[in-house]
Amino acid sequence: MGSFMAAWKDGEEREKAIESAQESFAFLEKLIQGKKYFSGEDEIGYLDLALGWIPLCLDIMEEVGGMKLVDAEKFPSLLEWAHNFAEIPLIKERFPPRNALANYFHKIVGLKRSKK
């Protein structure tokens, strides 16, 4: 939730949301280290599916919010997992088009910002 909130918050609230998101990503980084998938196997499991939004939405949220939440230096295992997960044919086929999702996030963030 912190990564989404960071996209539309300002000032101290934004910094807190970014920090919260990065703490969550650090936790996930530790869980995934040394594994291809969170299941610990060569097949995806429940947690992989639950976190499947990361490879699809994270870079869009970073773009819309004008911020960087996850970089390769701090989160190499998480980014490798995201790449592996997104390349699974069954998953890849079901991801919505990036442009449509980016437009959706731009609208939602714009609405949130206008209600401040």
Notes on the protein architecture:
The longest helix is centred in the first third of the chain and has 22 residues, at 11-32. The model has no long low-confidence stretch (mean pLDDT 92). The protein is mostly helical and 116 residues long. The two termini are 18 Å apart. 70% of the residues lie in helices and 0% in strands. It is built from 7 helices and no strands. Its main location: cytoplasm. Belongs to the GST superfamily. It is found in: Cytoplasm, Cytosol. It comes from Salix koriyanagi.
What would a concise description of this structure say?
The chain has 116 residues and is mainly α. It has seven helices and no strands.
Uncertain spans, ≥5 residues at pLDDT below 50? Answer: none
How many helical elements? 7
Percentage of β-strand residues: under 5%
Mean pLDDT: 92
Q: What is the H/E order?
A: HHHHHHH
Q: Given the C-alpha coordinates, what overall shape results?
A: globular
What gap, in angstroms, lies between the N and C termini? 18 Å
* Main β sheet profile: none
Computed CA radius of gyration, to the nearest angstrom: 15 Å
Q: Helix amount, in percent?
A: 55-70%
Broad structural category = mainly alpha
How many individual β-strands?
Answer: 0
Subcellular location: Cytoplasm, Cytosol
GO biological process, one term: glutathione metabolic process
Domain GST C-terminal: 1-105
Family: Belongs to the GST superfamily.
Question: Topology of this protein?
Answer:
Elements: H1 2-8, H2 11-32, H3 46-50, H4 53-65, H5 76-86, H6 89-94, H7 98-114
Helix pairs in contact: 1-2, 1-4, 2-5, 4-7
